[in-house]
Amino acid sequence: MRYKSGVKVALALCIMVLVPALLRAETLKIGVFDIQRIMSEAASVNTYRQRYQSTLEMKRKPFDQTEEELKQIREQIDKGKLKPEDQMAKEEEFAQKVLVAKHQKEDLEAEVAKMDRWMKAQVFKDISALLEELNKKEDYSIIFERSTVAYYKNAIDITTKIIELYNKKK
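^ thats the sequence. predicted structure below, dont judge the formating
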């Protein structure tokens, strides 16, 4: 059977933590959290999201402006009231603007992907610190992210605790 690399790491961690603990008859405390739920429910993530949105809006303005210019040129061409040489010039201008818009769209998409990675990295950094803090208080043997676990009982889900801690910190 093939596993994703994250699952392999999780299984290796389980073996490394669980086997020695079982041999020492140590009580294990396991926690599981859902990063997607934290991203959608934690009020603190909204700070990053708002910064992300305002930056995105600013970077989207040139693309929107070019699209508006394309619309205006297209309307002039479609009216058909231009002299043949003016018609040709407008069509050439339109073709050039289409290329500009294409490049702007690609740049915008790349920027969106970059900003999305940045926001997720910030949230993961915050959550890592919160997990350390939570572990100091409650002494977990191991904490997993939900996507790396095939099954778990809801009783070990610590997502709500993390969201509460996260909201208090920001």
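The radius of gyration is 26 Å.
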